[in-house]
Design goal:
519 residues, 35 strands, 25% helix, binds zinc ion, single chain, elongated
Length: 519
């Protein structure tokens, strides 16, 4: 090889080496460009650089099937829901996208997050990269605006209790959160199932996805070995439901109960223990607890005890006579005799502390078909009582009436007509005032008590829809009642209970609301 040739070969070799370095540099630049494009998540000429690079580094395991965990889902309006889908095989890494058939009802907020936007229904489709799809039906209901749980629940340490915050509606998984204030007494799971741990008290707080809260006081007692049902005996009217009560010894209690009637033609009973008289006669109601312990109550159906008489004539005037502060061993019987004579019924607002002594009179009032209202325990004015004391005024009287009659008072009249927060705001019972005050308690005079009614007619006014206030503890009142009934009867009035007056005026009495007349 000549020197010249050798030099040429040398140059060629150098050129080759140079070109090779150039190619390497180019490849390097391309790789760097690709990596930085990938890093920036760029899509170059129609393909996703990031995904391609990822696919090279971590190859996709294609799904062979995709399935929603649930085929249909209920949500409350505004509720969010994380989609749950299962891929087969379980190590499949195919990605999927969600699409809604109606974005106004269900919106896909991000990757897997779904939000209910309005009431309605639609379908959400999940599609994998390799073209598989699965569908789920969504139904969106109104958002809960009120949670309805009992304020207090008694249960046995050996039973469980299911909280149902909104009766008859569902809001999908996880729409409520439950917490127990004392987990040593009872725990509650994410579905609202309460499991007792030990005897005692705890408060369960229930919260909805839209932040509505309510609380339930839970008393966990010993497992009962016996109990009674309304002292074993009750008298009811036709078509006016009364709730039976299970009576446990202190420290015992149970929640789950099953009721049955020995004769459904006479008495029917629902799952909450409400008995309804269908025909006059007798039937036995049996209540069975979760542990198979049972108790019976003999129910006598007597039309006389119907809360609202069905034969009243709504085209004729009606007035409600009411008697406070009794029962009174001396005067109440005389009032009852007059009422009976005129086929009249009245409402007696009784004072709880008198009942032990006046059991017979209370029974006589009720068994003649009159209505029993509560007038507190000892006639203390609400303004002089604490919240707790006011509550006791109601519950103590309710229990005293129930012990004697097997029914609870369904109306309340505040002592002195002075209402107070607890009576109204806690809304346990309708509050009844009056529109005509005979002032019999003040004048203690038969003639002026009678005149307070007569003067209404003298002025050419009427008493249709009025509630009249009297007191059956005044000696001067029974003779006035005789004269008043005679006058009203002559004027064509039907003398009715407050519930009858409300019913025939189309008013559904609401707890916590005050009524003084029905015009
Ligand atoms: Zn009074």
């Amino acid at each position: 090889m000549s020197k010249k040739h050798a030099a040429q070969a040398q140059t060629k070799k150098a050129k080759k080496q140079h070109r090779f370095a150039g190619i390497l540099l180019l490849i390097f630049v391309i790789i760097v460009a690709l990596l930085s494009a990938a890093w920036a998540g760029l899509t170059v000429a129609g393909f996703d650089v990031y995904r391609e690079v990822k696919n090279i580094l971590f190859p996709v395991i294609n799904a062979k099937a995709i399935k929603w965990e649930h085929n249909s889902i209920m949500l409350g309006n505004g509720q969010k829901y994380e989609a749950k889908l299962n891929l087969t095989p379980s190590n499949a890494t195919s990605e999927y996208t969600l699409t809604s058939t109606n974005e106004k009802v269900i919106e896909i907020v991000e990757d897997n997050l779904i939000k209910a936007k309005s009431v309605g229904s639609c379908t959400v489709k999940a599609t994998t990269e390799n073209g598989l799809s699965a569908y789920c039906d969504f139904t969106v209901s109104e958002a809960p605006d009120k949670l309805d749980v009992p304020s207090e629940v008694d249960m046995a340490v050996s039973e469980s209790y299911q909280i149902v915050p909104v009766e008859g509606k569902e809001y999908g998984d996880g729409s409520f959160t439950y917490t127990s204030s004392n987990e040593l007494v009872a725990t509650v799971n994410s579905k609202g199932l309460v499991t007792p741990v030990d005897m005692g008290e705890t408060t369960i707080t229930v919260k909805s996805y839209n932040n509505i809260k309510t609380q339930l006081k839970l008393n966990v007692g010993q497992t009962p070995i016996k109990f009674t049902l309304n002292n074993g005996k009750i008298g009811i009217g036709i078509d006016s439901p009364v709730q039976l009560q299970c009576e446990f010894e202190d420290g015992y209690g149970a929640n789950s109960r099953q009721y049955s009637s020995s004769d459904e033609k006479i008495v029917t009973v629902d799952e909450k223990g409400y008995v309804t008289g269908r025909h006059e006669g007798k039937a036995t109601i049996t209540c069975t607890l979760f542990n198979n312990i049972s108790a019976e109550c003999e129910v006598t159906v007597d039309d006389k005890l119907s809360k609202v008489r069905s034969h009243l004539d709504p085209s004729k005037p009606m007035v409600a006579l009411t008697f406070d502060d009794g029962p009174d061993g001396k005067n109440t019987q005389s009032v009852l005799n007059t009422l009976k004579k005129y086929d009249a019924r009245a409402t007696f607002f009784v004072v709880g502390s008198r009942l032990e002594k006046e059991k017979k009179m209370l029974k006589a009032e009720y068994e003649q078909g009159n209505e029993i209202g509560s007038h507190s325990w000892d006639h203390k004015y609400a303004g002089d009582l604490s919240t707790k004391q006011q509550r006791e005024e109601i519950t103590k009287t309710n229990e005293a009436v129930h012990d004697i009659l097997g029914i609870y008072p369904t109306l309340f009249r505040c002592p002195g007509g002075i209402s107070c927060d607890v009576y109204e705001k806690e809304g346990n019972i309708p509050i009844i005032q009056w529109s005509i005050d005979t002032r019999d308690w003040e004048t203690m005079n038969t003639s002026s008590t009678y005149k307070s009614i007569k003067k209404v007619f003298d002025k050419n006014e009427n008493l249709n829809g009025d509630i009249v206030l009297m007191h059956d503890i005044q000696d001067s009142t029974p003779p006035a009642v005789e004269k008043i009934c005679k006058l009203l009867d002559k004027k064509g009035y039907q003398m009715v209970t407050v519930s009858e007056l409300a019913y025939y005026n189309g008013v559904d009495l609401e707890n916590g609301k005050i009524y003084s007349s029905f015009y």
